TrEMBL record:
Pfam families the record matches: Big_7
Organism lineage: Bacteria, Pseudomonadati, Pseudomonadota, Betaproteobacteria, Burkholderiales
Region of interest (Disordered), residue spans: 176-201
Key words, A-Z: Signal
Claim: Signal is one of the keywords in the record: yes
Name used for this protein in its record: Ig-like domain repeat protein
SUPFAM superfamilies associated with the record: PHP domain-like
Top-rank taxon, per record: Bacteria
Matching InterPro entries: Ig-like_fold, Pol/histidinol_Pase-like
Position of the signal peptide: 1-24
Gene3D superfamilies xref list: Galactose-binding domain-like, Immunoglobulins, Metal-dependent hydrolases
Length: 837
């Protein structure tokens, strides 16, 4: 039986205590906020009753609003069994509402299981009848009206009634976790500060499964320091700090997070606060603003150099809330800005128009930047052509992540027990249905100096085991959407589809087996599993496909995406990244190939070989050295050659993957081999993916530069880097960051270059490719070589540059191409190596 209550409660009203100076402007930060706290377990288990807490606030609202709200309790059969609704008057102060549910004291027939508590809240400007309470009919009309005004919030949480039991899960050993170590002593406090920075121990590592060669690094990808409006000392932090007035900066944040057991922390600074003002500072200096951003990049790079088992990330939180939406840009090398000073000078490196998300996406795509939707709402945010979370092809390439949950931005909790939490799954679902290829994250949005410590939630990032934790490997993982969101830092969730890992985009024919692989190292079990299905660009509704962790279906023809959501026995939730499946007509072949791998040679030219067979036919074989894709062969006998100097001396492993036309895949057992490069022309090669045979893996910069298009021929293998070649004004950048050992006697960079040009001049260099050495923060240290249309020829020529002067430094090997407005010049680069003796 469904019970409906219209409540006219006396709300508990609390002052927000928000410092207006902490915001760029009041108008920019007007946003209706509503949260729901629904305890997963009852305090008294016999009756199962509990109290649900709703909180409403509207910072800087100019006029009082009526808040209409509805709370629904849904049973395991998806029936609404109880409903509460009411209205509150909201102006300058937050409003708390408590809803008491009697549980079995009100309905003894309630069965055991997982229930859902759903909240809908809508803010509507007061119409002048300030003293009149909304009627039940008016409340219902407001809540049932659908609009895109940006004032509607929906949230839901699971609760357990009685004994829900444990859901059977596939056997899955936890993947190894990041290499963070226990600190021998508490981390030092910031010099001159009274706030100490305590340390903790990161979770212990465990062996990986053979089929999933990844290591999990736990991250918080959303936080602020005193470079914008964060870094507030815990004793006094109640809201945003005035820009650049907080007690703690990026290095303090990285130190704190590392000593709390995190593997990765991003300082995501508000892009419009680098002028140090709560509004536009027309007296500000562009040089000062840009220097502060550069200092943040350098702080992260220096911290990484000193702490190789931790990754410090410094970037931007771009945009405003009201008529906008915040998003993180995780790898921006420049300060993106829309503010100008009184001399009409841009207070940043590159102009981006405020709230123009389509233009921002295009800039990000062209620069190779990747983004995360921060605390997104289903309406009123990220507008493109008036559509919330509006899709563009450039946006799809640029935006990789969506924040599905975060904790209170102004929490001062340091015991990981914060109860102020919000979910944004409905908005992330909307983005997926719009066509965005985004994976779920969960972060803490720390403005106070408790980076990563307010709650146990983390974003799990999967990086190939054996690959170092660097900015390059981190960005590669995000581009591949190999992440999961977890409210429990000791849990993992990896969704596979026919053995392919979440984040991938695959073609399938015949049955599709979806497996939610779950692991927890602290004894938690699973109370519920949900597999969801949607259709990209349908702009429809994501639906629940299954409640089983191992589900086999035959999808309808066309495009689909799937993701898994798991609720643990303690109520904590995990979300996998989606996997995107194009279902094609086929023979229904479900038999995987068989494959084995072998290697011959230990120096010079070595040979990688595979023997593969299939009941229908093998379409390709991929070769992986140390879990890194090294090459592909599409015809038997399957083999490839490799220059041994592209590998370090010592032990390595080779595996081969064989595919058939139906998308079935098999992976060989690992074959061990050793490399013994000698002196002289040998040495140790430092660059990862030097021949580009793994695509863009380990390289950063513009998208599409590394390619295997048939129109351009690589020197070896199937892939090369192609710069320019359009006959139009264009710039292309590609780089890899590398640490040159201080013990090196010499360091030599070599690469093969082919230049083709329609230019006829023999005297003017109209189109250029520069080989630069840049600092880890992107500062140009030297330009050892420049090539142009004057170097055009018919084949590849090897070029060498001496980098011995940079031993003991972490530098970027940086290719920068520039083409003018007519007559194309194409620069092809292949087989890059940085060899040290």
């Amino acid at each position: 039986m469904r019970r409906i209550h219209t409540l006219k409660l006396l709300p508990l009203v609390l002052a927000l205590g928000i410092s207006q100076a902490g915001f760029a402007s009041e108008a920019d930060h007007r946003e209706f906020e509503a949260t729901l706290h629904a305890p997963y377990n009852a305090a008294v288990s016999a009756q199962e009753g509990r109290t649900f807490a709703l909180k409403f606030s509207y910072p800087f609202v100019e006029q009082a609003h009526d808040i209409a709200w509805r709370l629904e309790l849904v049973d395991p059969a998806q029936r609404i069994i109880e409903r509460w609704q009411g209205s509150e008057l909201l102006s300058k102060k937050a409003v708390d509402v408590k809803v008491n549910w009697a549980g079995r004291a009100g309905d003894p027939a309630l069965r055991d299981g997982i229930y859902q508590v759903r909240m809908i809240a809508v803010a509507k400007e007061k119409d002048g009848r300030a003293n009149r309470k909304l009627s039940g009919a008016e409340i219902g009309a407001i809540l049932d009206a659908r609009n895109d005004s940006g004032h509607r919030i929906e949230q839901s949480w699971d609760i357990v009634v009685g004994d829900a039991g444990a859901v059977p899960m596939p056997a899955f050993q936890p993947l190894p976790t990041g290499a963070g170590k226990e600190s021998a002593s508490p981390a030092a406090a910031k010099s001159g500060s009274t706030q100490a920075i305590p340390g903790t121990v990161s979770p212990a590592s465990v062996p990986a499964t053979a089929s999933l060669p990844y290591t999990v690094y736990y991250a918080n990808l959303h936080s602020q320091t005193n470079h914008s409006d964060g870094g507030g000392a815990l004793a006094s932090c109640t809201s945003s700090e005035s820009p650049q007035a907080g007690a703690f900066g990026p290095t303090d944040a990285f130190t704190y997070a590392k000593n709390r057991g995190l593997d990765i922390l991003m300082a995501s600074e508000h892009n419009h606060m680098y002028d140090g003002s709560s509004s536009t500072n027309t007296a500000a200096s562009p040089a000062t603003a840009k220097a502060l951003y550069a200092a943040g990049l350098k702080a992260a790079a220096d911290f990484n150099l000193a702490n190789p088992n931790f990754l410090a990330v410094y970037g931007l939180e771009w945009g405003v809330i009201n008529n906008g939406g915040h998003l993180n840009i995780l790898n921006s090398t420049e300060l993106l800005q829309w503010e100008y000073n009184a001399s009409n000078q841009l207070l940043g490196d590159a102009f981006t128009a405020k709230t123009d998300y389509a233009a921002l996406y295009t800039l990000m795509k062209n620069r190779g930047y990747i983004g995360q939707f921060n605390h997104p709402e289903t309406s009123g945010q990220f507008l493109v052509n008036g559509v919330a979370l509006g899709y563009t092809a450039d946006g799809d390439e640029a935006m990789a992540l969506c924040e599905v949950m975060n904790t209170s931005a102004f929490s001062t909790n340091t015991t990981e027990s914060e109860t102020g939490r919000s979910t944004y799954e409905s908005a992330c679902k909307k983005a997926l249905e719009a066509g965005f290829h985004i994976a779920f994250t969960t972060n803490q949005d720390n403005h106070c100096a408790n980076w990563g410590a307010s709650y146990t939630n983390r974003t799990g990032v999967l990086i190939p085991t054996g690959t170092a934790l660097t900015n390059a490997s981190f960005v590669d993982a995000l581009r591949a959407r190999r992440v999961f969101a977890t409210m429990d830092k000791t849990s993992q969730l990896v969704l596979t589809a026919n053995g392919r890992v979440m984040g991938e985009r695959i073609t399938n024919s015949g049955p599709l087996t979806l497996v939610a692989n779950f692991a927890n190292t602290s004894g938690k079990t699973v109370s519920s599993v949900a597999i969801f299905e949607g259709v990209p660009k349908r702009n429809g509704t994501v639906t629940q496909l299954s409640t089983s962790a191992n589900t086999t279906i035959t999808p309808s023809l066309g495009e689909h995406f799937y993701y898994a959501k798991i609720t643990q026995s303690d109520g904590k939730i995990l979300w996998s990244a989606p996997i995107w499946v194009t279902q094609a007509a086929g023979s229904g072949d479900t038999v995987a190939p068989t494959v084995s791998a072998s290697e011959s040679g230990s120096s010079g030219t070595i040979t990688l070989s595979a023997t593969a067979s299939d009941n229908v036919g093998v379409t390709k074989v991929e070769f992986y050295v140390d879990n890194l894709l090294t090459g592909t062969d599409t015809a038997a006998p399957y083999s490839m050659t490799l220059n041994s100097t592209t590998l370090s001396n010592g032990a390595h492993t080779l595996t081969a993957k064989a595919y058939d036309a139906a998308g079935n895949v098999a992976t060989s057992s690992a074959a061990a081999f050793s490399i013994t490069n000698g002196g002289g022309t040998g040495g140790t090669q430092l660059l990862a993916n030097p021949g580009f045979e793994s695509g863009a893996v380990s390289w950063s910069g513009g998208s599409g530069i590394i390619n295997n298009a048939a129109a351009t021929a690589p020197r070896t293998g199937s892939w090369e880097a192609k710069f320019a070649g359009t006959g139009a004004t264009r710039t292309d950048n590609l780089y890899q960051q590398v640490a040159i050992p201080s013990s090196a006697a010499s360091a030599t960079l070599s690469f093969w270059l082919q230049v083709g040009s329609a230019e006829t001049t023999t005297t003017s260099a109209f189109d250029t490719l520069k080989l630069q050495v840049r600092s880890s923060g992107g500062t140009v240290l030297a330009t050892p070589a420049t090539y142009s249309n004057l170097n055009k020829g018919t084949g590849y020529v090897q070029r060498t540059v001496d980098l011995t002067a940079y031993k003991g430094q972490t530098v970027q090997v940086f290719f920068a191409a520039a083409e003018d407005s007519s007559l194309q010049t194409t620069f092809l680069v292949d087989d890059v190596a940085l060899t040290v003796q």
